[in-house]
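To: structure desk
From: M.T.
Subject: fold request, one chain
Message: Could you run this one when you get a chance? Sequence is below, nothing fancy, just the single chain.
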Amino acid sequence: MTREDGTERSDRNGGRELGTFLRARRARVTPGDVGLPAGSGLRRTPGLRREELATLAGVSIDYYTRLERGRETNPSPSVVDALGAALLLEEPELRHLRDLAACAARGGAFERSSAAPTRTVEPGLQLLLDRMRPCPAHMVSRTMELLAANPGGLRLLAGLADWPEGQRNIVRYVFLHPTARVLFGDWENQIRGCVARLRSLAGVEPDAPGLAGLVEELLAKSPDFARLWELYDVKGHSHGTKTFHHPEAGTFSLGYYSLQLEGGSGQRLVAYHAEPGTPEYDVMVQLDRELTEADGQAPATTGTQRGPRARA
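Reply: Done. Structure tokens follow.
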């Protein structure tokens, strides 16, 4: 729906998404986690019961039930924060709960400009990717489409270059490419982070271009994705260390940062690093070589300009 001021709002019931998140998080908190007695007999409800959570948050059972069923769409900030505390939410989860509550109050997704976010990577960012070499780096969209990469940034994700350009999505890769499960030393942690980013986006902007199709594809093709999607985890990873079992470069670990760009594009810069003079740095140099047609990558797709290499 387009407004007079040029913004759009989804017609989707934001209250339903808020209720879905509350149910998912309630199921993951046990009475013991919040100091309540487990009680006698078999509990049919995983996690907390509605009345238990309502009591902990200081709201009536009827009010909380309406929240979960999407019938109450304007909880106050104090109620939202009380629910977050009762559910033991960490900061990313609490932030998502607040976002969902704001969406519910509006009657749908966050308002956004009627122009879809661009998939074009600005020339300055493309140049930056090249100047970061030999550090592997790539740019991704909100839905984790690969938009641009320097040579190491693509070669690090072994086998991704075998796919057509339009299919190169990081979430699709980690779930569906046969190499990915072996490549990542902690594959379960990797896929959890990927699903968390999509789940968070789907909660506040379900109409994001390409999101629904990607989620439907992965739900149909990957039982692991379907399992994690139902958990409704929204805690992504912005930095840390990843261990790789690479078919060309062997086993090694690199530090990384995933940085959100300002300006509303939703694009992220993902870059890996290692100390000069270490075996890990030598691996980056090994991966940082010009891609050829045999690698399934034409120079234009990397979006990088040729120039002197900068050693980090």
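Reply (cont.): DSSP finds 14 helices and seven strands in the chain. Let me know if you need anything else for the meeting.
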